[in-house]
Design brief:
The structure holds 2 protein chains of 2 kinds. Chain A is of the alpha/beta class. Chain A contains 14 helices and 23 strands. Chain A has one domain: Metal-dependent hydrolases (TIM Barrel). In chain A, helix 4 packs parallel to helix 7 and helix 7 runs parallel beside helix 8. Chain B contains 12 helices and 9 strands. Classes of the chains: A alpha/beta, B alpha/beta.
Chain lengths: 431, 304
């Protein structure tokens, strides 16, 4: 099977290419890159006027399976991924049961295989049931395909447990991913603590709730030597701590979400939960620090924190409504909206090469011999209509907004899985 | 055009506030005939216990001739199963035109109003707003001083958890009152200064300069929540007592939204002090609520 991506501008910073090039993929691998390739047998993807990049990897999504299929399924979540231009996603372990045992992880991978769309990389739990007490079986989880470990939204309260986890898993290349929020400082907060929360009479979570856990986890990383990744950084202080840790030689990477790059904590006047998310949307000072940190290289990766929920759950009172919203289908456009000055080669690093490197997964480049995962995207403005999402979660604070960038075609292992607005399950699976 | 609902004081323009207060004064001087809201179904929906506010609203509704339905569901019966939108549709279908609502969660009145095709009066939502309380406070101040512009008012105590403080901040600022908040940082974070008011920690320095001081209730659960040390530490700095009463000018007034904790935010001396206006406040409350009902349902066109 051959696929030819024709007529686009290839942006592949790892291979050092930014030029108009055709890309030929055969049997799942890149076999030729040239100014003009003609191949009568190949399935042609028209990339005229578009940008061709190594497949984008969203290293932070919630696919909700097993356990919460009223929110999302692996099939719908991976459809959302390819429609959003992502060839691979890493899924968080906050499922029910949690991804803390090999059989559960294998089942996730089996369902992803059946869906036949984006690659799915499971993230295993750090502690059993994400309960913060007993260690998960890291080596067994690594053997079945876990690419990292995280307790997601429930960071272990007990630093001794986290330290021992990092020591025990120290010989594995899989990094630890921290969702940093101190549960005591956070309390029952529904938004950021600041003038807006004071005015609205809503309980706010201070940036400090994130900062203290970032500091703790970076010190544990320094102590244990474990590679660490800080999920969805949302404060200026966290960024300073990460810079400090790097200056001390700690192996730390970090990611930022589209919503923290775009929105502020001024979205709660209607007391609706549409913008309720963890960590919360912050103030302008933090948002500007995040944008600057993408540009200066402090932030390594984009990640959507795709967290779908049914509309009826998000319509509950602020205190009851769940946190998060769908992100996969707006992420690409939202990054471009927040960072119009970000060069394309840096954009591709943050969306593809860096996540691949952090997770130790294939991709990140389209050099000859690389896997044939390709994202074709274009700077064509479009209006978000959440009702049209492939994701089961139809809510996003980006609904109705005009975003400047969108996916045109998505190719996974040489198979065209998204083109002309249609999601196309891989032929060899669907046949 | 009059607003459809009263969720906080800023639903009213300063002119509308003046009109409500004028009308309330008119009602205080001579009760209206009971046909102002004759036949209008008004639902008192109190998810949270209330003695003074519920009683005051009920009397106000009776005095304008409304058809009153009172219902006190448990706080948990909404927000889980039936959605707010479904509840609003049901109540409208039954024929309710006005809902007076109190709920422990901030924003509940707003969410209900957004879904309800009728009038909503916020009788207190969480720590957010309590507009009719602020209006009766404003009525009491105007009765006392005949003006708002330039009055110096301090609100003292647990600002963070006080819907009365928030609604008064909104209303007083709109009317040109000079507002200072006083309390410890755990109950009055610095961020309040960004709302256009002053934040002070020293009550003693402030008292001689005030036209009015509003003492908020201090709940003992703030101690177990780790927000306050022993009450003595609080009272030593922020309690209005005999010594501090001497610092307050003779022509100043003392307001309290009630219920008060004697011996905590104030001592018995304060309640006996001729400058205390607690009784005037609750008295005015009924007339303010009558005026609000009249404004929302009948609009601004009805002659006084």
């Amino acid at each position: 099977m051959k696929t030819l991506v024709k007529g686009g501008r290839l942006v592949d910073p790892v291979a050092g290419i930014d030029a108009n090039r055709d890309v030929l993929i055969e049997n799942g691998f890149v076999v030729q890159i040239a100014e003009h390739i003609g191949d009568g047998e190949a399935r042609v993807v028209d990339a005229d006027g578009a940008i061709v990049a190594p497949g984008f990897i969203d290293m932070h999504v919630h696919l909700r399976e097993p356990g919460a299929t009223q929110k999302e399924t692996i099939a719908m979540g991976t459809a959302a991924a390819v429609a959003g231009g992502f060839t691979a996603v890493a899924c968080m372990p906050n499922t029910e049961p949690a991804l803390d045992a090999p059989a559960i992880v294998s089942e996730v991978l089996r369902r992803a295989e059946i869906a036949g769309l984006a690659r799915v990389y499971p993230i295993g739990a750090i502690t059993k049931g994400r309960a913060g007490q007993e260690l998960a079986p890291y080596h067994l989880l690594a053997d079945v395909g876990c690419v990292a470990f995280s307790d997601d939204g429930s960071t272990p309260r007990d630093a001794r447990v986290l330290r021992n986890a990092a020591r025990y898993a120290g010989d594995l290349p899989q990094c630890f991913i921290s969702h940093c929020e101190d549960p005591d400082l956070k309390g029952a907060a529904v938004m950021n603590e600041g003038a807006a929360s004071m005015r609205l009479g809503l309980e706010g979570s201070p940036g400090l709730a994130e900062d203290v856990i970032v500091a703790r986890d970076l010190l544990i990383a320094a102590d244990t030597g474990k590679a660490w990744h800080i999920a969805h950084v949302s404060t200026a202080n966290s960024l300073e701590l990460i810079r400090w840790a790097r200056s001390r030689g700690v192996r730390v990477t970090c990611e930022v979400t589209p919503h923290h790059l775009v929105f502020l904590d001024d979205r709660f006047d209607d007391y609706r939960a549409d913008s309720k998310v963890n960590p919360p949307l912050r103030d302008a000072h933090d948002r500007e620090a995040l944008r600057a940190a993408v540009l200066d290289g402090t932030i390594d990766a984009f990640a959507s924190d795709h967290a779908p929920h049914p509309l009826e759950e998000k319509a509950q009172l602020l205190s009851c409504a769940p946190v998060g919203f769908s992100g996969l289908e707006v992420a690409l456009g939202a990054y471009a909206l927040a960072l119009p000055e970000l060069a394309l080669d840096r954009f591709v690093m943050l969306a593809s090469a860096n996540p691949a490197s952090i997770l130790g997964v294939p991709g990140g480049t389209l050099d000859i011999g690389s896997i044939g995962d390709v994202t074709v995207f274009a700077d064509r403005p479009w209006t978000v209509d959440a009702r049209l999402f492939r994701s089961k979660g139809k809510n996003t604070p980006f609904d109705g907004m005009v975003l400047p960038r969108r996916a045109v075609a998505t190719i996974v292992e040489g198979a065209v899985v998204f083109e002309y607005g249609q999601v196309l399950p891989r032929e060899e699976v669907s046949a | 055009m009059a607003p459809r609902s009263l969720l906080d004081v800023d639903d009213l323009t300063p002119e509308e506030i003046a009109r409500v207060l004028d009308r309330a004064v008119g009602f205080r001087e001579a009760l209206p005939s009971r046909d102002l809201l004759a036949g209008v179904p008004v639902l008192n929906l109190f998810f949270e216990a209330s003695t003074r506010t519920a009683t005051s609203f009920t009397l106000a509704e009776q005095r304008v001739g409304a058809d009153i339905i009172s219902f006190a569901p448990g706080a948990s019966s909404l927000g889980k199963g039936e959605t707010i939108a479904d509840t609003a549709l049901t109540l409208r279908g039954i024929g309710v035109r006005v809902i007076v609502v109190r709920h422990p969660e901030s924003g509940f009145a707003r969410r209900l109003a957004d879904a309800f095709d009728g009038h909503v009066i916020n009788a207190g939502d969480g720590t957010h707003a309590h507009p009719t309380q602020a209006l009766l406070d404003l009525m009491t101040l105007r009765q006392e001083f005949g003006r708002f512009e330039g009055l110096r008012v301090a609100i003292v105590g647990d600002i963070l958890h006080s819907r009365v403080a928030r609604s008064n901040i909104v209303g007083m600022r709109a009317l040109g009152i000079d507002v200072t908040l006083v309390g410890p940082p755990t109950l009055l974070p610095d961020a309040f200064a960004e709302l256009g008011v002053r934040v002070e920690r020293d009550l003693d320095a402030l008292l001689p300069q005030l036209d009015a001081v509003m003492m908020l209730r201090i709940q003992r659960e703030r101690i177990s929540a780790g927000l306050l040390p022993a009450l003595e530490d609080y009272t030593q700095r922020f309690q209005l007592n005999r010594a501090r009463l001497r610092q307050l000018p003779d022509d100043a007034v003392i307001l309290h939204p009630g219920p008060y904790n004697r011996g905590v935010e104030l001592t018995d001396d304060v309640l006996d002090d001729p400058r205390s206006r607690y009784v005037a406040q609750v008295h005015n409350g009924v007339f303010v609520r009558m005026a609000v009902l009249d404004l929302l349902v009948n609009g601004a066109a009805v002659p006084v």
